[in-house]
Structure formats: structure tokens, C-alpha cells
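User: Before I run my own analysis I want an independent prediction to cross-check against. Here's the chain; please return only the C-alpha cells and, at the end, one sentence I can use as a sanity check.
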Amino acid sequence: MLLFSILTAAVAPGIALLTYLYLKDRYDSEPIHLVVKLFLTGMLVVVPVMVVQRGIELWLGSNPLLSSFGLSGGIEEMAKWFVLYHIIFNHTEFDEPYDGIVYAASISLGFATLENILYAVFFPSTFTTLMLRALLPVSGHALFGIMMGYYLGKAKFAPQRQVRRLLAYSLVLPVLWHGIYNWILTSVMQQLAWVIVPFMVVLWIWGLGKIGRANARSPFRIVGREEEVKL
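Assistant: C-alpha cells:
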């Protein structure tokens, strides 16, 4: 019973955030089976990523910058981006900019959920600890997924000359912000309470803004009655 409670607490944040982002799609919701497939794919990515991270750590050693921007931000976001691009970028269901956010968040939150489960099982975890992980790592992965998906969605519907630049943004920005996030946690631990909280607030404000912009670019968007009056 205790194990069930721990696993539920570990899984719930990822499911809740994915449900929230899925329901924010105002015009053309994605097929549930595809969202679930990408969520499970995100979970499957965790093990090979951990193997690669461990191999590089044994080879090059570990320091805060390498760990934050290379092992965590770099490898994790590159793996998620690679899978996302090859599975979904040319998929017929990717038919509006906001879809990029839903699909990227699905992979990111699948990844974060399995990480959370492994942490809960192999490390003694109190309810408070799991809630902090929901507010920090799980929430962080969701935000990095929003970044990745927003620019992937822009690239999907952009003129050909802009596609490569936007695809680069969809990879580089999550790596950068993930690296900064990890660096704060590993290098400024004594200042964690006042550094990480405003950092996450800024990222959420940024992320919510991108959600609104992606929805506004939907080809399925119908001008409402109030907008018709303004026009």
C-alpha cells in the first residue's frame, strides 16, 4: 500500500501537467493515443540517456558546468528532441502550431515521470520531497518541453528559409535553460530558496505566453463575435 502511494505521488504531477497542457489546446485537440504513445516513448528514453550520461561522466569526470549543461541539459534535451523530430515533425496529425507544445510536453513529462518513479523507489522520499520534485524537476521538464514544442511548431509552418533557424531554437533554448536550472540547483544550493523560485516563475510566465501565441496561430481558429465587432 505504501509503495502504491509513493508511485501515485510520483506519477500524478506529470499526468496532471500533461492534462493541463492538453486541455489548453483550444481549437483541435490531438488524438489521445498519440499523446500517450509519446508520453511512454519519453519514459523509454530515460534508460539509454542514463547509460550515456554515466559513460561520459566516467570518461570526462564531473563538474557543475559539465553536469548541468552537458550531462543533464545537453544529453536529455537532445535525446528528447531527436525522438520528437523523427516521430512527429512530419506526422499528419501535426496540423497546428500548438501541437508542437502538446507533443514535446508529452515526451518531456514521460521522461520526468519515470525519473520521478526511479527517485521515489530507490531513494527514501517523504510526501514533501515528492511535492518539491513536482514543483521543480517535473515542472521544469514541462517548461523545457513547452520551449521545444513552441519553436518546433513555428518551424513546421514557417517559410522554408526559416525552418532551420527555428529548429535550432527548438533544441538550443531547452538545453540552455535546462542547464541554467541544473546549475542553480548544483552550484548555488545555499541560495536555492530565493533563486530557483523566481527563476521558475519567470519560466512559467514565458511558457504561458508561448501557449497563448501558439493557440492564436491555429489555422482552425474561428474569429469570435467580440472580435468581429472590433473588426
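Sanity check: The first helix runs from residue 2 to 23.
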